Amino acid sequence: MGETGDAEGQKRFEQWLDYVQQMVKLLEAGGSIPTGPTEPPFELPAPSPPPLGKPAKILVAAPHPDDEALIGALPLRWRLEAGARVINCAITLGRSASERRRRAAELRSACRVLGFSLIIPGDEGFSDVTLRNRQEAPEEWAAKVEALKEILDREKPDIVLAPHAEDFHTTHIGTHYLVVEALGKHLHGKGGGPLPLIETEFWHELSAPNLMVGVPPEVLAIQIMATAEHGGEVSRNPYHLRLPARMMDNVRRGSEVVGGQGAPSQPFVFAELYRVTFMKGKERVLPRPGGRMLGPDQKLDIEWLRTEFWPE
Fold it and tell me: Can you list the domains of the chain with their CATH numbers?
């Protein structure tokens, strides 16, 4: 290359090295921010005035404490921008019975940050929400389905979020099947539905997401702040600090997986990916083919979901 080329190459390398090192410094700076649970409660971001008519009610079926924050971009935006009421139904408080009191305290603090109300079935959540339990202890599983159905009957949500069926972790997968069965019983015989069931991802990517939701920086900051309230968990693995990186990679992946192979990258920095399906009675209804984008400034509307995704 010659001396000039070598000098230019070294300069370019140093610029990219500085870029990477700045990212490392940001990660280290985030590590110095205190985690929770925090008392007294934080002041919550005020939602926008709800639109005319009844505001939406959204139920998040979170397999563990922290999932409500990690996948909560869409319901959080809905609360802040459209005055929706978001209910976090804590399916479990984790595997270890000795840790559940701590995890419940962290969860309450996280929900205050998010502005979500909280339901913990039976005060300590369900135990052993797995496909193995479903197969080997059908009566125990049926009791869990009935208990969740009763929550759905009482709350009557307009939208439900739950993990997809291949989200790696056994409790995430079990939560998917628990929610589908309970929703089917809730809707069956009432002419219920179609009700949007929005599948979420965390441990394993959705194979066919059909909705990419742009996430404004201030919304992501609230998600990180809420995740950090799970102080006992993030002390062993600071995954709250890596949430922006996952959201950035979602834009790379979602621009083409949702937008179509070869589609241009979306012009925002952070996004979450979901799969919109529907429940009608006990039946799962597949959505209209194709993916949709919801930009950070685009209006949130249940009717938009139904119009864009309902197959009829």
Answer: 57-309 (3.40.50.10320)
- Which pTM was predicted? 0.92
Burial of 165 (0-12, 13-18, 19+ CB in 10 A): middle
Q: What angle do CA 263, 76, 94 make, to 5 degrees?
A: 105
The DSSP secondary-structure symbol of 215 reads: -
Range list of β-strands (E), 148-214: 159-163, 195-200, 211-214
CA distance 243 to 204: 15
Say how far apart CA 25 and CA 21 lie, in whole Å.
6
Displacement of CA 112 from its chain's centroid (Å):
16
Per-residue pLDDT of 252-275, as tens digits, reads 999 999 999 999 999 999 999 999
Q: Which of 142, 153, 92, 161 is nearest to 122 (CA)?
A: 92
Tell me how far apart the alpha carbons of residues 244 and 221 are, in angstroms, rounded to a whole number: 9
